[in-house]
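Example complex used in Figure S2.
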Amino acid sequence: MSSLAIARRELLEIAGNRKFMLAFGVQTLLLLLLLPAFGNVFESGNLALPSPTLQGFVPLGVVVESDDCDVLLQVLEANRRLRLYRFSSPPVEELERGVIAGYLLIPESYREGSLTQLEVVLVLGGGVKSSVAQDAVEESVAEASSRIAAQRRRELGLNLESAVSVRREFLRQVVVEGAGGERFSSFFLSYLVPLVLFFPVFMSGGVVLDAIAGERERRTIESLLGAPLSRKSIVSGKFLALWGFVSAEVAVWLLGIGVMGIPVAKPVEAMVLLAGVNALVIALAMALTLYSRSLKEANIALMLLYVPLFVGLIYALSVEFFSPRDFFSYIPFNLISRAVTGEGFSHEVLLQVLLLLGFGTLLCIATAVLLMERDDVVFGSRPGIGRLLSDACEALLGAGFAGGMALALLMSPLVFVTAVLVEVALALLYTGLLGYSAKAVYLTVFSIAVTEELLKLLPLRVALRKQRSWLTARASAAIGAASATGFFIMETLAVGAAVLVVFGIPLTKLLYARATTTLVMHILASSIAALGLYRRKKLGTVLIVLAILLHAVFNLAVVEVVL
Amino acid sequence: MIRFERVTKRFYNVTALRELTLTIERGELFALVGPNGAGKTTAIRLLCGVLKPTSGRVTVAGMDVARDGVRVKRMIGYLPEEPSLYERMTPRQLLRFFASLYGVRDAEGRIEELLALVGMLDKADVRISTFSKGMRQRISIARALLHDPEILVLDEPTMGLDPLTAKELRDFVSGLRGKKTVLLCTHYLDEAEQLCTRLGILHRGRLVALGRPEELKAELGGAGRDSPTLEEVFAHYTRGSRG
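Predicted assembly (806 residues):
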């Protein structure tokens, strides 16, 4: 209830801020006036996209059945707009998955040496790139025909100028019709509309700053802290208000876009997704603002958040438009573009992305609450990151065995990233010294075992240093196992993302395969090593060496199977 | 009613309050005096649950402020040093908001009553940003009394007020004697002497003297000497503790 009271007051505060309301009104008006105008400009093709972005723009499969097509292949390869992939048979699956925009079949009957009509088959998928693919292929075929004709004329001794001229055209806009018959280009829909829909979240910085840093600067926070409510409800109340306001702004814009006749394919899904993104960004901005010492520092912190976010948005929308891939839909920016155009949108992916955004939001709100609970954060002398982490470790370990397990899991991203960096450095060192040899491979594999086993002991080291009464041999082994599980999760996610991108194999398949092998090894080795660290002395060292050997043997077995 | 038990508050490497032990009885008017940076505001904030102690505990009617914060805060009316109010709200909106936080019954009636008490009824719907410091202080007092608290904590309540408003406020506090427990924190020793039954002198985070004003004077005076003023007592303890 108190959270709602805080939220209500915060909304009143925003509504009472003439500057915010004026900015909101002007932005909405400009948006509604300018967007359709931009749509028309793109639709009538007055704005051409710059050519450098079109290099290697279209991924095109080529199936070569003829053994007499050198000129055509040369011309195709020289076409800057195309990126060619050779296949032995028609790549139907790749086309369906969107890996290629289409494929060109050069049939057995194609003979550059003969005088008969030459014919190639171009199979295209849907989407923006197919029309560019058709253009580029037609252009290459025309050029190849011209060259072949010239060659023949030379052979026949005729001295005629080629009458073929090559037409060069940049990206052709794919035109979409709105409900009222209005026409909008797909660049406008897949790039500009999503970009505009993100504006409210980028402008949320002002309201976050006023609600958190402003409250502290005006010292009104003291009255709130003296009122009968928890600090958690202050954070959650403010979050609810800010999120509600920014999401309402998005809803008004989305509605306005709809009223103007701009055809957003999945408006409800776009709204839900934008609300999810807003929640994460606002929660993150709140945590950053709380951690800042002054209004000025908070301003800089928010700039460091919003500028990379904006650059990321532009980049994501650019790659989504010029070079779409299936896995891009896991990036919220790209998914919103897909929700607007309706191309390649999946509800299953939307659900997964929303879950991830929700998890991230909760994590940021929890961080904000933890910061709010600290008097040194609220009243000036802000602690350093090291002190915050040390206090967090202390608090977790103070909560007993469960806290120790949580610490092991929470530290796993740090352990994993450090391990990867060390392992890559060692692998580079070995290959530098020994070249690409079996010796270098085996040395790398052994080093991985040593690095990972030692680094996975980090949470237990922290726990042992704080000396807790509950930290028995069994508890140490359990913390080792928890650290191993966390490491395994990070490793699987990283490997899974790579496998998904390169081979298109879903993460779940990989998870099943690794859970029965790698996870068992990690837990076993880390538990043994943890016991070793707890025991210390000679027995301890023996146990740690045993764990490393177990890990190394497993790694070697994997290498043997793979090689 | 109020107990500080060996309460220490540290901010990183600064100790604002050291091992404060103090008991304030129900219905007592108690003053905490001390030079700037003595730890008065820290002590008050610890009592009101605005800060959490680094060690020791503060209890109100047997309830630990750190653990039962929400229940304890319902018993306390807190007037901070700065009348920190939401500028874009009107007094009525502000009091409504705090009434909802404190769960005040018949909030509208109580708001009218308090605005009349502090003489701000005619300004009830005017934005606070247009108010003078005295007017803001009046609204702050109304906010502190909103839920009719058993304990009133006043941090430098007359600071920056014109003499007339300050006198009105002192009269008001004086009228609370025996009805409410009041903890007053002030720079003005005459104000403390005039209003309070007991006082404590804080210096560099330590409670260096505690007792009735006449007791403290007598303690310093001694046989054959004129009774010192409270200023002299204050100067003695704050200078003496410097070493």
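DSSP finds nine helices and ten strands in chain B. Strands of chain B lie at 2-11, 14-24, 29-33, 55-60, 63-64, 76-79, 151-155, 181-186, 198-203, 206-211.
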